[in-house]
Amino acid sequence: MAAEVVDEIMRSPEAIRLGGEKKELSVLFSDIAGFTSISERMAPETLVELLNKYLSAMTDIILRHRGNVNKYLGDGIMAIFGAPRGDPNHASLACFAALDSQSELAKLREQWKAEGQPEIRARIGINSGWLVVGNMGSQARMEYTVMGDAVNLASRLEGANKFYDTLILLGPRTYELAARDIEAREVDRMRVKGKQEPVVVFELLARKGCLSVEQQRVIETYVEGLAAYKRRNFKTAATQFEAALALDPGDGPSRVYLSRAKEYLIHPPAADWDGVYELKSK
Q1: What does the alpha-carbon distance between residue 10 and residue 7 come to, in Å, rounded to a whole number?
Q2: What's the angle, vertex CA 258, arms to CA 256 and CA 260, rounded to 5?
Q3: 168-189 pLDDT tens trace
Q4: For the segment 103-125, what is each residue's pLDDT rounded down to a tens digit?
Q5: CATH superfamily, region 20-208
Q6: Which ranges of the chain would DSSP assign to H, the alpha helix?
Q7: Which of 93, 91, 88, 122 is nearest to 2 (CA)?
Q8: Distances (CA, A) of 153 to 74, 171, 177, 251
Q9: Average pLDDT of the residues of the chain
Q10: Residue 38: CA atoms inside 13 Å, Cβ hemisphere, count?
Q11: Whether the model pTM is above 0.85
């Protein structure tokens, strides 16, 4: 927990009361991509050393942005922004923490590469919403944590990165709250397993004004392709996504939509097609 939050609790212990309360918060989930296969190739001692170094670096960044690590989930992290002390900028802070985490991890990768260690990449999902937060458990052991659909979606978004070859995905409320501070693009209208209503998912790209000229060209081309795709103009969409990939062959969302557009050119969707993608996996 951030030192300034601990100080706040010490000054006002009544702020942390037994039971729960509803607050709008942002939740961040982070996980190492392909950790199982990485762990199978490493000696246990080396793996633990690498993992601890990674978790320490990511935790420092979360705390720096006034977040609180709620729990470690093996190689994963769950963090809360906006509790226990309220913060109106919780969504932007979560986004900044995610961006800085990826930047720091890139530096660590260079170090590990020089040491002959495997490259580690992390996927991050962030979502914001009204959640129940408080001390939960038993009289013998309590844990300060959060519950609610917004938590579940954040976890799903973290996992969904692998389908789009992205690193950071945001839920719609996070994007709405942080839009003035970040650069992001719409990735999909997604219906997650167990839910009826689709949500619009965004990829977090950079802080506001920090996209390179090359990145801007890729995003502009992608956005034109996405607009054509939504109009069912799949030929134009495919052309735009091909152009985006010519600018950046590693652009995952363009690759995903190019595949879909080509498929729909051969097998057009039904008349009531709404463009929603069904995310079957957790």
Answers
A1: 5
A2: 70
A3: 999 999 999 999 999 999 999 9
A4: 999 999 998 888 888 888 999 99
A5: Nucleotide cyclase, GGDEF domain (3.30.70.1230)
A6: 3-11, 35-40, 44-64, 90-114, 149-164, 172-178, 213-230, 234-247, 252-266
A7: 93
A8: 20, 8, 16, 24
A9: 90
A10: 18
A11: yes
